[in-house]
Amino acid sequence: MSPDGEQVGRKGLTRCASVWACPVCETVIRGQRATDADTAITEHVRNGGMVLFVTFTVRHWSNHDLEDLIRVQVREVWKGLLQGRKWARSNAGNLRNRLGVVGTIRVLEVTVGQINGWHPHLHVAVFLGGRQDPKPKRGSGEKWDPTVRSYFRPTDADLDLFEAEWKAAWIDGVTAANPDFRPSARDGVDFKRVYTVKDAAAIGKYISKVQGTDVTTDWSAGAELAMSHVKQARGGNMKAMDILFRLAALRGGQVADELPGWGSIEQLAALWAEYELTTKGGQNMAWSEGLKRAYGIGTDENQDAADRQAVDAEDASEADATRIHMSARTQLEVGRKRIVVDVDEAASDAVRRNEDPVIAVRALLALVGIDSMGVWAITADEDEAKWKASAENAVGASGETDDARAKRKEREANDLRRARADRRQHVWKQASASTQE
Prior knowledge:
It is a single chain. This protein is of the alpha+beta class and 437 residues long. The protein has a domain at 23-236 and 284-312. The chain has helices at 23-46, 66-83, 85-88, 95-99, 156-177, 197-201, 215-218, 221-226, 240-251, 265-279, 291-294, 303-312, 328-336, 340-352, 357-367, 380-396, 402-436, and strands at 50-56, 103-113, 117-128, 130-132, 148-151, 189-194, 238-239, 285-287, 324-326, 375-377. The strands form 3 sheets. Strands 1, 2, 3, 6, 7 and 8 form a 6-stranded antiparallel beta sheet that branches.
C-alpha cells in the first residue's frame, strides 16, 4: 500500500496470463493489446495510409462444435487466404503491391447464442497504402527492416477489386472446408474503410453499442480489435465472460431473471467447459511479420510472451510502500469468500489512521472465519527475497515430461468430449424445447 493508504496493489500472485479464460488477466492483456493496436493504426492513418477493417463470419447452428468452427476459420481458411493467389496477385496484376499492404492484425472473437449456438468470427485490420523495402531472399542471412518508407492512398478501383476477391475467396474457402458453414453472400464478409483518425475512433459503432462507453468519443480501432470482451453482443448472444459471470452469480444465489444473459447453472457450466477447453493454447490475436517493428511497438515475438510481460508488470510496487504478506491458503480463502475489496479497504483505512494494517486485516478475517495468523508484516528486503525465490522455484518446476504431457492431452480430450455431450444435452435440447413451446 502507498504511504497514504490510497493505492493498493498485489505482488507475487501466480498469474495464468490467459486472455481467453481469466477475467483478471484478460483485462490487463486486452488493455495493453488495445493500446498497441491503436498506436499502430493511428500512426499509419495519420501518416497518410489507410486501414481496411474486415469482419469474417460463417454460418453456424446449435449442433456445431466450437472447435470445428474455429479450426475452419483460423487454421484453414484464414491461413489459406493469406497464402493464396487472391492475396498475392490478381488477373489485373500484382494487386498486393498496388495496394501497398504493410500487414494485418487478426483477432478471434467468440460469442454464443441461445438458438444458433457458437459464433466465433474474425476481426482483421489490414494496413494499406505503405511502401517498404522488399524482404530479402530466404537463406540470405540479411535482416529485413519493415519500416514504412512512404505512404499513399490506394485507388477505389483497386480497393473494390481487392474486397471482391477476398470476399469470394472467404466464401469459397469456407464452403470447401465445410459446406455446413458456407457464409451468406450478404453477411459473410463486411468491410470498413478507415482513412482518418476520426474514422478510426468511430469504428466501435461497427458491431454494437459498447457497454458503459461513449462510442463516438471513447472507442477506437485498437479497442474494437482488442477490447471486444467489454461490448454487448447482439441478439441475446453472450461473450465468454458473460457466461462466467452469470454462472458465478447463479451459484452465489442470485435470481436468474435479474441477471443479464441466459442459461441455467447446468447450461452455463457446459458452455464454459467447452469454451475453455477449446480455446486453451489457441492464439487470440496475431500480428503479421514486421508490423509491430514497423511502428516501434515491439518485436515479432510470440504474443504469449507479450501477454505474460503485461500481467507481470502489474507486480511492480513502491520501495517505501507498506507490505502485508498473506499465506497462499489465506489468499485462497479471501478469494473464495469474495472479500478482496474488504481486505484492501480495511488495510488502507488503518494506514490512513496511522494504525497497524496487519491487525486490521486479521480482525476482518477473524470475523468471516478465516485463520488470521496467515497474515503478517514483511519488509522490502524480505519481500524481494521471497519474490526471487518464488521465481526460481517456478522455473525449476516448469518442466513437463513427455509422458505427463501425453496423459494431460488425453485427459483434456476426454474432458472436451464430455463437455460437448453436456452442452448438447443441457443447452440446445432445452433451448429447442423452449422455442417450440
